[in-house]
Give the backbone structure.
Amino acid sequence: MFKSLNIGLKLVLSVAISIITGIAILVTIFSIQVASNMENEAKNSISLSSKNYSSLMQGILNEEVVLTKGMATALNEMFSKNDQVDATLIESLLKNTFDSSGYAAYAFLYLKDPSVLSDTQALDSNFKSSNGKTFAMIFFDETTGKAGGIRSIKVSNNFSQLNIFQKIEQNAKYGDLDTLFVGAPSKLNYDGHDFLGINLGMPIFNNKGKFVGVVGYTFDFLEISQEILDPKLDTYEGGLRFLVTDQGVITIHKNNDAILKTISEVNKDPSAKLLTETIKKHEDIIINNYIDSNGIPSFASIESFSTLGDSSHWSIVVTAPKKSVLQPLYKLQFILIIIALVIVVIILAIVYFCVNKIVGARIPIILHSLQNFFKFLNHETKEVQTIKIKADDELGRMGKII
């Protein structure tokens, strides 16, 4: 079909194919290079983001670790030297230390054996449960991070059944002032208020080395989760940020249904297995081909951290959907294609005009003259028409010869 086209159209099509091919190659090379740079920038961005969030969480949790250890050391020192310690002194020490915390929501001193305290008759009635079987000083900070706002809350009848108390009693060793126990993230209820939190605690012993109770702090994840999940901090649309334990239990996530579930329960994609294995190994990694819980292909950065003394292990995961990462490139490609099409149309219009004016319109004249000339030679006609020459280019000189 191409062979049957006239010379002018052949020239225009040849130029068009050459230009379009060149532009396509240029856009492809440009897109590959820009996509590679964008992907590297995205991975660097989520890696930095995960590092920042892990540093934030590590600092917050380490504060509670230090406060718990400091309080446990002070109480064990006091109880080791006395058969009984003044209850109001203990209350004052616990409240003032708790008030210095920037993030802990609750402080508690659970005493399995309250006989280590003296002058308990003057204490707040909230320290004893309704059934009279549980004694604990529990304080709530109404102005977290600011001085004051500390108030006592009523001890529930089942407060002594907290898992961390049983864990500490079974594993605590007299004289060990280094081992801090961290409970698993769970739904807790103090004074009728449900929240997601963790307990940090250490054992208390009397002067005979007998276990008598637990002192510790309770961390509420609500405030910090609002800070971490703030939409204003989203770098890429559809990206996820979540906190998990080293067992893969999700503690902070924008999807409330995912809270307290494992990664494998929320995400069935095979790429989630690598995520879980990395978290359990307490390693840091960037996954290039991660499919998130919404089924979106993404990059994922994992940053693991531990609290002081390796008392607990956590990981921050930050994802960036590939579609969002490359969205600016798609817009740029669209703009380049539109510009290229406009340029191609302009160039082809100019080429078509030039070819049609310089070549296309003159070749038929020469062809017609040649046909008349050979008809004259063959005695098919007796007349020969001359060509009026206006140009002195190759076609013009051909016309002169004819």
